[in-house]
Amino acid sequence: MSTTDGELIQRAADGDRSAFELLYQRYARPVFGLALRRLGDRGRAEDAVQETFASIWRSAGTYRPDRGPGAPWLYAVARNAIVDRARNRTEIPADIPDEPAREPGPAELAEQGWVSWRVHRALEELNEREREVISLAYWSGLSQSEVAEFLDIPLGTVKTRTRAALARLAEILGDEVE
Amino acid sequence: MSFEDLIGTEGLSAEEEAKLRRVHQLLVAAGPPPELSSDLSLPPVPNDEADPPEVAYLFRRRRGRAVVLALAAALAAFAGGYAFGHSKGKPSAFTSVRSVAMHGTSGGASHGVINIAEKDSVGNWPMLVEVSGLPEQAQQSSYYELWLTHNGKAVAPCGSFRVHGKTTRVRLSVPYALKSFDGWVVTSQGPGRDGLGPVVLTT
């Protein structure tokens, strides 16, 4: 059984760099996805990822396992960093052309990102083969037959693999699918 | 693609089918995870010196406490920027207040973003400029130059840079009153080219 997020946060609080790196491996993509969704700009979202993980490192000692698992705590850290970054868009040079503003409010959008956060985090737990088939089946725009052709496996195997990957995700997501 | 098309329901119990359908819905709602750029391939170098901010526990917030936590997060963001700015070999955090998109003039795939931070105490606007798809310089003495424009003309130089690979990020800083200008351009500069080179990116 893999180390839980909570255990990794606690180890990071003790200065364990490898635990911190593992947290980064698990959560860099979900944090980036959340930031991108809210900020709409890759550069600013990348900065938000860096800020989030700096904050995780510094505040890991405040995590209390008896108050909940690691994922919501990490989400709260990320959300704070991202909302804060979004609020920093006020004092601006007036006449510089810009991309259209994105609405609605930062807190609401960050909350909406919770589902993506959990799902993207869960995808990190899949093995390469499972992740590949999910990615192709859901986001490539290919039909199942085309996926089969692409992977050079029978159509039935694509369906079996997709089903197995969904079952694994259901297991990882736990309460989310009950 | 529908759930039925993807995996079918044959051989699944009602309970299993319900679970898998829920996962299917979540995947559709979540959308694809974003690709991480090379800048995010490694975690930041942690800094132990900053005071830890207190972090909100999701679903257990109180209004007053949220204000305090927002302030703590702002402090953390500032401290994070400071820490990264003083770490070796890692890009420092950059808090932009405005982003300006640029696009290529030749109809190709080149583009860029100028992220502008708050003006500092002595009147400089720090900028993080990211350009993609610009061809690498043909000669050692060639470079690109960022300009502010007025009435469409490049009038105020904002800094020079060279590119390598698909995407290049550089930090520049300008002391101008930005609201006096109406846009930005990037020109290609090189030997034997007096004055302004051709515009390759524009806002």
Description:
The complex is a heterodimer of chains A (178) and B (203). With 178 residues, chain A is mainly alpha-helical. Chain A has 9 helices and no strands. Chain A is globular, with a radius of gyration of 19 Å. Chain B is built from 3 helices and 8 strands. In chain B, strands 5-4-7-8-1-2-3-6 form an 8-stranded antiparallel sheet, with no helix packed on it. By secondary structure, chain B is α+β, with helices and mostly antiparallel strands. In chain B, a hairpin with a 7-residue loop joins strand 2 (111-117) and strand 3 (125-132). At the A-B interface, helix 2, helix 3, helix 4, helix 6 and helix 7 of A face helix 2, helix 3, strand 1, strand 2 and strand 3 of B.
Search tags:
heterodimer, A: 178 residues, mainly alpha, 9 helices, 70% helix, B: 203 residues, alpha+beta, eight-stranded antiparallel β-sheet, 3 helices, 30% strand
Largest interface, by Cβ-Cβ below 8 angstroms: which chains and how many residues each? A-B, 79 and 80 residues
Tell me about the largest β-sheet of chain A.
none
Q: Approximately how much beta-strand content do the residues of chain A carry?
A: under 5%
What's the total number of strands of chain B?
8
Spatial separation of the terminal alpha carbons of chain A = 21 Å
Q: How would you state the average pLDDT of chain B, rounded?
A: 74
One letter per element, helices H and strands E, the order of chain A comes to HHHHHHHHH
Number of strands of chain A: 0
Binned, the helix content of chain A reads 55-70%
Radius of gyration of chain B: 24 Å
Number of H- or I-type helical stretches of chain A: 9
Q: What's the total helix number of chain B?
A: 3
Roughly what is the average pLDDT of chain A, rounded to an integer? Answer: 82
Summarize the entry for a quick read.
The complex is a heterodimer of chains A (178) and B (203). Helices cover 70% and strands 0% of the residues of chain A.
